[in-house]
Write a structure and sequence with these properties.
By secondary structure, this protein is an all-alpha fold. The protein has helices spanning 3-17, 21-32, 44-74, 90-96, 99-130, 136-142, 151-161, 167-174, 189-213, 218-226, 231-242, 244-260, 263-269, 281-290, 294-325. Helix 4 crosses helix 15.
C-alpha cells in the first residue's frame, strides 16, 4: 500500500471517529441502502417538552382556534329573518358593496404607510440607548410609560390637545400658522389617530429591539469601529443584518397591532368620522355587531384575518430578503 493510500485511509478513519461524525455517516449509509432506521423510544425525557406546551396549545385551541372556526362558519349564515340559515357568500358580496367597508379597506393602506414610521422610531431610539447616549437609563424607563396607559385615557387627553381650540392650535396661532381641525377633517382624522397610536405603543417595539440588542455580538461593532466605520455604516452593515429576525418580528407585530389595536383610540377620538374617513375593519366589525348584523360582522372579521395574514407573509418575505442584502 502506498503512502498516499495509507494517509487517505487514516484520514477517513479519523473523520469517522470525530464526535458525532461516525453516527451520522452510518445513519446516512443505512438510509441510502433502504434499511429502516430504528426510532427512539418515547421516554419521559422525550415526552417532557410536549407535555409542557400541551396546556398552552389546549388553551389556544379552546379560546382562539375554536371561536375562529365558529366565526368563519357563522359568516356563511344570514342575519335577522335569515338568522342561522346558510346563504353562502352573500355576506361577503354585501361587504364589497358597502361604502364603509370600502373606506376601511382604503384606510388599511394608510395604516401600512405608518408602520415603517413606528418601527423606525422604536429602532433608532433603541439604538441610541444601546450605544449609551447621555441619559440612556432615564430614556429606557420613560419610553415605555405610555404603553401602560389605557387607550381611552390617551384618546381623551389628545381629544383636548388636538381640539380646534386646543393647546396645539393655540401654539400654532402664536406663530401665525392657521389652526387645523385635526380630528374633524377627512384628510387629517386618521393620520392624527395613527400618530397618537405610535406615541402610545412604540415602547413595546422599543423593548423588543433592546432585547435583540442583548444578543448582538459586540465584537462585530468593535471591529467595525476599528475599521473606521461611522455610525450609519455600523447600523447598515452590522446592526441591521444582525437583528434581521428581530426587525421582521417587530414589523409583523406592529402591523397586527395597528390593524387590530386601534379601536379604543378610534372610538374615543373620532368615532370613525368624519363620515367613514377613519373607519378601519375592526371598527366596522363593532358597528355591524351593534346594528344586530353579527353574521355580516363575522364576514368582516374573516376579511380582517385574511388581510393580516397576507400582509404578514409579504412583510416576512420582503424583509428577509432586504436584511440579507444589507
Amino acid at each position: 500500500m502506498s503512502t498516499t493510500d495509507t494517509t487517505s485511509t487514516r484520514s477517513l478513519v479519523l473523520e469517522n471517529r470525530a464526535p458525532g461524525r461516525g453516527r451520522t455517516r452510518r445513519a446516512r449509509v443505512r438510509s441510502d441502502l433502504g434499511v429502516p432506521l430504528r426510532k427512539k423510544p418515547w421516554t419521559s425525557e422525550r415526552l417532557a417538552p410536549y407535555l409542557m406546551v400541551l396546556p398552552v396549545i389546549a388553551i389556544l385551541a379552546v379560546f382562539r382556534l375554536y371561536p375562529l372556526l365558529l366565526g368563519v362558519n357563522y359568516s356563511f349564515t344570514g342575519d335577522r329573518e335569515l338568522n342561522g340559515q346558510f346563504i353562502g357568500l352573500d355576506n361577503y358580496f354585501t361587504l364589497l358593496g358597502d361604502a364603509r367597508f370600502q373606506a376601511s379597506a382604503r384606510n388599511v393602506l394608510v395604516v401600512l404607510l405608518f408602520v415603517p414610521i413606528q418601527v423606525f422610531v422604536a429602532g433608532i431610539l433603541a439604538t441610541f440607548v444601546f450605544l449609551k447616549v447621555p441619559g440612556h437609563r432615564f430614556y429606557r424607563s420613560v419610553y415605555f410609560l405610555p404603553v401602560v396607559l389605557s387607550p381611552i385615557i390617551i384618546g381623551a387627553i389628545f381629544n383636548i390637545l388636538l381640539a380646534a381650540n386646543g393647546p396645539i392650535n393655540g401654539a400654532l396661532g402664536a406663530v401665525n400658522i392657521p389652526s387645523i381641525d385635526f380630528l374633524g377633517l377627512p384628510g387629517t382624522a386618521l393620520p392624527s389617530v395613527l400618530v397618537v397610536h405610535i406615541w402610545a405603543t412604540f415602547g413595546m417595539a422599543f423593548t423588543i429591539f433592546l432585547a435583540g440588542f442583548a444578543t448582538l455580538d459586540a465584537e462585530l461593532l468593535d471591529a467595525a469601529k476599528i475599521d473606521g466605520a461611522n455610525l450609519w455604516q455600523q447600523i447598515v452593515h452590522v446592526i441591521i443584518p444582525s437583528l434581521s429576525q428581530t426587525i421582521q418580528f417587530v414589523f409583523v407585530t406592529t402591523t397586527i397591532g395597528m390593524l387590530t389595536g386601534l379601536f379604543g383610540l378610534l372610538y374615543t377620538m373620532t368615532a370613525g368620522g368624519p363620515g367613514a374617513a377613519s373607519y378601519l375593519p375592526e371598527f366596522l366589525i363593532w358597528k355591524l355587531n351593534g346594528e344586530a348584523r353579527p353574521a355580516l360582522a363575522s364576514a368582516a372579521s374573516v376579511f380582517l384575518l385574511l388581510i393580516v395574514l397576507v400582509i404578514g407573509l409579504i412583510q416576512i418575505r420582503v424583509l428577509r430578503r432586504a436584511t440579507k442584502e444589507a
